[in-house]
Amino acid sequence: MFDLLIIGSGPSGSHAAQQAVMSGRKVALLDIGYSDRRFDEMIPAKPFSEIRRSDENQRKYFLGDDPAESLRYQDRAGAHLTPARQHMIRDQDRLFPLISDTFRPLQSTGLGGLGISWGANCFALEDFELERIGIPASELRPYYDDVAREVGLSGRTNDSLTPLIANFDRSLIQPPLPLDSNAETILRRYERSRARYEGRGLYLGQSLLAVLSKSHQDRLANAQNDMDFWADVGKSVYRPRFTLERIAGASNFSHLTGFLASRFREDGAGVTVECQDVQTGAGTVFSARKLLLAAGAINSARLALASLRGYGLRLPILCNPNHWIAAINLSMLGKPARDRRHSLSQLTILMKAERDAPDYVLAQVYSYRSLLMFRLLKDIPLPVRPGLLFLRLIATAFTCVNVHFPDRPSPDRWIQLDEDGSGSALKASCLFSDSERDWLRANEMRLLRSLAGLRCIPLQISKPVHGASIHYGGTLPYAKDGRPFTTSADGRLAGTGNVYVADGSTWRYMPAKGLTLTLMANARRVTKQALRDLAAEDERAR
Amino acid sequence: MTAKHRVAACYSDAVSDPEPDLQVASKKERAVFRMALRETSPSHVNEFEPITKGFLFAVAALAPLGIVAAGVITWRVIKRVMRAPS
C-alpha cells in the first residue's frame, strides 16, 4: 500500500508528486502516460530557417506520419498540435468518451497531460483572483516560489505587466529572452504612450515564460531556433515530464503508467483505486492511504461521479472563451525580420474589464512563422497561389493574438455522467447567454481598437469551438458547506475522508490569465495538506 | 477519379508513403495539401520566403489582392443569401 497515490501526470500531478516524494513518503503516480519520442531524434537542433533550406527529412516531422492529418486537425480543438505533440490526445475518444455539440475539450492521455502543449505563459495571480477562485492567497504564495524554482522562468521585472502577473519572489526570474522584430515594434509603440494606455486599463509587456534564458538543472537556455512548437530540444521550454524524470529514480516513488483509473472506493485503511490496463483491458487495483485527484477538471469529475454514484447529476464546468485575431503590424510591413527568435508568446496584454467586479481580458501576441504558411491558406479568401503571395507580403508583419476571456459558473455550462447498459458516458453542454455574448463582443471591440492604436490592423477573428482554450476547471468547486461534489479549502473532496483534489476542478472562477502556474502551486499546497494529515494519523496511531 | 483519389495522386507525386485518408477534399483543400507538401521540401524554400521590399512595395502589391479578396467575400455572402431559406 502506498502512502499517497496521485492520478494524473499533468502540471498538477507532476508537481504534487515532486512535493510528496520530497517528504520521504511512499508515493505512486498513476497515468495513461502515452509518449512519442521519435521526433526527439528526428528534429535537428538547428534554426528553423536552416532546417527549411537543408533538411530533406523535414516533411516527416512537419507533417507527421499522416500528412492529411495536418489539414484534418484544422477544424478541431487541438488544431495547433504539431505531430510531435499529437500523442497527447491519442485514444481520447475511446478512453474519455464525451458527448456534446457545444463543448469540444482536449483530454490528454499523454505523459505530462495537457502540459505537453502548454504555451509556457506564466501568471502568479493577484490576491483578489485567488480569493475568487477559492484559494487562500497567503497560503499559496510560498508555493509559487517553489514552482518558479522548478520550472525556470524568464521575463522582465519592470514593465507595465509585472505587478499583475509576477506576484512572487522576482529574484527567481531569469533575464528576458530577446523579443522578435515584430513584437519589438509593438512594445516600442506602447511604451511611447504607456501612461495613456494604462489610464485606459491596458497593460502590455513581455510575456513571463517558463522558458530558460540561462541553463537551469539539466536544461539548456533557449537556442532561439524558432522550433519550440515542434520539439523540446535542450528542454528549454518546461514540460511536466521533466519534473517526473527528475524524481523517477527516487526509491520512494513508483510511476504506474499505462492505466486508466475508473473508480475509487474508501475503506477503513484508505482508498482502493480500480484501474484498467489501457492496452490489454485487464482490470487491476492499487491501494493507498490517501488519494490525490489530478486528472484534470473533466476526468477528476468523471472519476468522482463514477465513484460516489453521482450519475445524472450536473456539475458546473469552466472554460475560458478563446478567440484568435489575425492582424498586420503596419510598423513591420515590407521590412525584414530577425531570423533568430523563440516561437512562443512574445507579448502579453491585459485589459481591465468591468462587470460587477474587476476582471481582465488577456491577449497573447505571437509572430507567426514556424507553423508554416499552408495552415493559413485555407482561411484566406483568395485562391491558393494569390493567397500564398499575400502571406509572403505580410509574413514579417503578421501577428496572431490569442484572446482569453474569464469564465464563471453558469447553469448553462455543465457536465453529467450517465450510465446505461454498456457503461458510462460523460455529456456536456456549454452555452452562453445573450448578455454574456454582448459582454464578450464589447470587450473584444475595445481590444481591437487598442490593437489598431498600436498599428496592428485586425484582418480576421477566428472563434474556435468552445473548449479550444484547453483551460478547464470548476467541476468540484471549493465550498464551505460540504455539499456533495465540492471541495473544502484544504483540498479534501466532500463526503470522503482520504480523497483530495489537486487540479483545476476546484476553481470557482477561471481568470483569463493562464492557470498553469497556479495549478502547479496549488497542487503542492494540497499535497502538503495531505502529508500533514498523514503525519497526524501516524501521530494518533502512536 | 474521386476527390479522395485525386488527393492521393497529388500526394504520391511527392512521397511514396501509403495513400492518405483525406476525408475533406474540396478543390481548395487539395490545393492547400499540395502546397503543404511543397512547403516542406527544401527545393521549394524560396517560394515561401517573406517578400521584404519595403512598405510601399507591400502596399502596392497588397492592394489588388485586397480587391480580389473583397470580391471573393462579397460573392460568398451573395451565395449564402441566395441559398438561405426565405
Describe the overall structure.
The complex is a heterodimer of chains A (542) and B (86). Chain A has 542 residues and is an alpha/beta fold. Helix content of chain A is 30%, strand content 22%. Chain A is built from 17 helices and 21 strands. The radius of gyration of chain A is 23 Å and the shape is globular. Chain B is an all-alpha fold and 86 residues long. In chain B, 63% of the residues lie in helices and 0% in strands. Chain B has three helices and no strands. In chain B, helix 1 runs parallel beside helix 2 (27-39). At the A-B interface, helix 3, helix 4, helix 5 and helix 15 of A face helix 1, helix 2 and helix 3 of B.
Keywords summarizing the entry:
heterodimer; A: 542 residues; alpha/beta; 7-stranded mixed β-sheet; 6-stranded antiparallel β-sheet; 17 helices; 22% strand; B: 86 residues; mainly alpha; flat; disordered N terminus
**Residue ranges of chain B: pLDDT <50 for 5 or more in a row?**
1-21
Give me the number of helical elements of chain B: 3
Q: What's the number of extended β-strand segments of chain A?
A: 21
Q: For the report, how would you describe the main beta sheet of chain B? A: none
Rough outline of chain A = globular
Q: What class, by secondary structure content of chain B? A: mainly alpha
**Could you give the order of the helices and strands of chain B?**
HHH
What gyration radius of chain A follows from the Cα positions, in whole Å? 23 Å
Kindly, what is the distance between the CA atoms of the first and last residues of chain A, rounded to a whole number of angstroms?
Answer: 19 Å
Helix content of chain B: 55-70%
**Count of alpha and pi helical runs of chain A:** 17
* Mean pLDDT over the residues of chain B: 77
Range of strand content of chain A: 15-25%
The portion of residues assigned to helices of chain A is: 25-40%
Shape of chain B: flat
